[in-house]
Structure formats: C-alpha cells, structure tokens
Write a structure and sequence with these properties.
DNA Polymerase III, Chain A, domain 2; DUF8185; six-stranded antiparallel beta sheet; globular; DUF8010
Length: about 210
C-alpha cells in the first residue's frame, strides 16, 4: 500500500511524529486511517485497564494527502520509521505490509459530539509531565519489576491535575502524552469532552484520554 502525502513538508512532519512515537516504544505500533484526502495517524501512548480501558491515552495527528485514499492499517512503528528514513524526501509513503494487533486500536473515541469545556496553559502541561516523569524515575529504580513499574505509571498518570480555565480533573497522562509527542506548543491547549472521553488539542495534534 502506498499513500501520497500532500507535500514534502507533510512527509517530514510525519517522520518527526513517528520518531517521537518510536522513542516511547520501539516495539509499538501506529494506526494509519486514510479517508479521502485526509490521513489520521494514531499512536497509543498509555494503555488502559479493565473492560472500560480506563487510563487509555492516544495521540492523533491529522495530515493532508495528495490524492484520495481509503485505507486502515495498524503497522509496526519501527518499520514505518525505517521506511520514512530510507525513502528520501518525496511525497510517497510506502506503508509496511506487516499488520499488528494492539489493544488500543480497538478503543475508538467518538467522531462527533465533542463539546469544548475549557482550556489549559501549555506551561501547566509541561510541568505536570516533567514532574510525573521525575516521580516515576525516582520510584522505579533499576531492578524494579515490570509489574511494579507499570502500577506506578498507572498511579502517576491516572491522577487528575488542576487546570485553571474550566478543565480541572484531566488525568496527568494527557499532559504526558502531549509533551512526549511534541504537541505542547502555543500558550494554551483546548479541552473538549464527549461521553467518557476528553480531548486535548493544540495546533499540531490531539491527545484523547478516558
């Protein structure tokens, strides 16, 4: 499968996004949903727990395509990154043929019904993310078991944080996802809600949490 991106700049933006996702999880995946001339690139930053997948945090970048397409594929992020790195600076994206199964790809946020409920300063997002990273590093020294580290991560990123502007109670994982994916730009991020989901949006990307 080959997708044609709108221009070389869009391709470079996608390569940067893929590299950030890959740094979070070398063995991770990315879901590419192409519809018409729009490409939605999804990444799972935090996995949820239980039947309701509480604690899920997804990253989303929406990019323009140069021609119509209709595809939906979940591919290894490492393979996708390698293809972007080795294929020069054109507009074609040769999607890896390998397909993978990841639990977060089955957790679908609503497409409509979003209502803006406030905003949060990007400085607050950066502070919350950095504090959480430091807390996890201090609480999970070398030799900690995987289960203990995962439990600590869920505790830290599942906590709500104060967000003056009407969006109090967002989980810290939303701040971490925005920070890790390079979405913390500008002065404020807009916060939306739809059912059990919240969406944190800046000019360069979205984080969806539940």
């Amino acid at each position: 499968m080959t997708l044609r991106l709108a221009d070389a700049e869009t391709r470079a933006d996608l390569a940067t996004y893929v590299a950030r996702v890959r740094r979070l999880d070398e063995g991770g995946a990315m879901r590419l949903q192409a519809s018409g001339r729009t490409l939605a690139a999804w990444a799972g930053v935090l996995s949820g727990r239980g039947l309701s997948a509480e604690g899920t945090a997804l990253g989303l970048r929406v990019m323009a395509l140069g021609e119509d397409a209709d595809e939906d594929a979940v591919v290894p992020v490492a393979a996708l990154g390698d293809r972007l790195a080795h294929a020069g600076s054109g507009t074609e994206l040769d999607v890896p043929p390998t397909r993978v199964m990841v639990s977060w790809a089955a957790v679908s946020p609503p497409r409509s019904g979003w209502e803006q409920i406030g905003e949060v300063a990007t400085g607050v997002l950066k502070d919350v993310a950095e504090q959480g990273i430091s807390e996890i590093a201090a609480g999970a020294p070398e030799g900690s078991g995987a289960a203990a580290v995962e439990s600590l991560r869920h505790r830290v990123w599942g906590r709500g944080f104060p967000a003056p502007g009407g969006a109090d109670g967002l989980p810290a994982g939303a701040a971490f996802a925005a920070y890790a994916l390079g979405f913390v730009v500008g002065d404020h991020a807009q916060v939306y809600a739809a059912g059990r989901w919240h969406r944190l949006s800046t000019p360069v990307g979205h984080v969806l949490v539940r």
